[in-house]
Structure formats: structure tokens, C-alpha cells
Amino acid sequence: MVSTSPAPSPSRSHAAKRLSILEAATMIFCRDGFASASIETIAAEAGVSRQTIYNHYSDKEKLFTAVVKDMTERANAGLFATLAGFPERPSDLAAELVDFATRLASNCLCNRDCIALRKLIQAEGERYPELFAPWRALGPERAWAAIGARFAKLHHLGYLDIDDPDIAARQFQALVNADLFVGSLLGDKPTDAQVRAAAVAAVRTFLKAYGKTAAKH
Questions:
Q1: What is the CB neighbour count within 10 angstroms for residue 109?
Q2: Which residues of 17-33 are buried (b: 16+ CB within 10 A; e: fewer)?
Q3: Which of 48, 96, 106, 125 could form a disulfide with 87 if both were Cys (CB 3.0 to 4.6 A apart)?
Q4: How far apart (Å, rounded) are the C-alpha atoms in residues 165 and 144?
Q5: Whole-number Å distance between alpha carbons of 198 and 151
Q6: pLDDT digits (tens, 9 = 90+) for 152-190
Q7: CA distances from 69 to 99, 137, 178 (A)
Q8: Architecture of domain 65-210
Q9: CA distance linking residue 115 with residue 110, whole number of Å
Q10: Domain spanning 10-58 has what CATH number?
């Protein structure tokens, strides 16, 4: 009996191979680092030939920057999804900031992609700074600006007293991550209780610096 199923789309096959290469390269680069990772190993993991990788990405440097860009974009997607729940006109500023900080830690700072990207930057950033151009362009400054804009609005509404929202955003992220950073680098996954405790401590310190006793409603 002759099959009537449509033949696979060439463009879909091309996209599938590209995705497979990117996923394999992410795993290999994060595991072995840039210098030790080989195109042969990535090709074997992706189930493609070396030439297929070169057809898609030209060389190992371009493949690495594609991996960094993809990881950064995924991290940003998680951040902006989390920002949708940022308290804009809170009835209980401390409690709602704790809820936001908890989601920020769980969805972003302790996210597998974010941890892997931080490890990659720490391991390779000094030796190959040019390969992290996508991260520089799309990464932390965009996150700080997005959070800073929310804090600026809370300042304008009278909930906070902030001179520089961008600095406040960086400090807020650092405070949330302070008790979770070392464990995450060592591969420890924090419990929900640990994430919540870190968020509570971060918000308490943050509000001591930037909080106001009276807020406009």
C-alpha cells in the first residue's frame, strides 16, 4: 500500500537540525568549556555531521556565540514573564515584593539556563570576552533596566525613596541572590523554603534602604 503521508518539509528538517545542533552545543560547551569542546563531539551528540554544523554556523566561535545568545534570550523570556507579576500599586509592599523576589529567584536566578550561563561566563569570560557579545548586549543591563523601571514607578507613586532606580535594581537582584549564589554554582537546588527565606531577607534589607513609612494610594 502506498503511503499518502506528506513528505517532510525541507525547511522543517533544516530547522530541526539547527535546533539539535544548538541543544547539543549548549550541553557540550557548558560541560567542557569553549576550548575543550570539539565540533566532532557536538556533531555526535546532535546526530549530524561536522559539515552540517559548519554549514549552519561556519565555525566553533560562531556556534558558541549562538549558544550564548540563545541562553540569554531564554533567560530574558523568564525574567519578563516574571515581571508581569511585579507589584504596581501594592496594598502590602513588603509582602508583594517578597512574592516577586521569590518568583524572580525560582524562575530566573536559580533557573537551570541562568545558572549554566553564569558558570560559562565565569569559566570563559576572561579568556574569550568577545564571544560573550550577545550576553553583553542582551543580558543583565536589559534586566536591570526593566526592574529599575518598575522601581522608578513605585518611587513616583510614593512607595519607595530611590535616587537611581538602575542601581536599586542591581542591588535588589544581588540581595535576592546573596544566599543562593554559592549553592547554585555547586549544583545545589535550593528548596522552596530556602528561596522564600532568601526573598524575605532581601526585601527586608532593601526596604531598610529604600522604603518609606507613608505611601500615596
A1: 24
A2: bbeebbebbbbbbbeee
A3: 96
A4: 9
A5: 20
A6: 999 999 999 999 999 999 999 999 988 887 776 666 778
A7: 29, 9, 26
A8: Orthogonal Bundle (1.10)
A9: 6
A10: 1.10.10.60
Query: What is residue 211's DSSP assignment?
Result: B
Where do the structural domains in the chain lie, given as residue ranges?
Answer: 10-58, 65-210
The SS3 assignment for 188 reads coil
Proportion of the chain in helix, strand, coil states, percent, rounded to 5: 75, 0, 25
Residue 211 has phi, psi (to 5 degrees) of: -75, 160
Residue 90 grid coordinates: 501594592
CA–CA separation, 91 and 60 (whole Å):
52
pTM (predicted TM-score): 0.78
Contact between residue 131 and residue 60 where contact means Cβ atoms under 8 Å apart: no
Q: What is the pLDDT of residues 126-137, one digit of tens each?
A: 888 888 888 887
Set of cell numbers at residue 181: 549564589
d(CA 175, CA 154): 19
Q: Helix 50-57 crosses helix 60-83 at what angle (to 10 degrees)?
A: 60
Cα–Cα dist 26/20, whole Å = 10
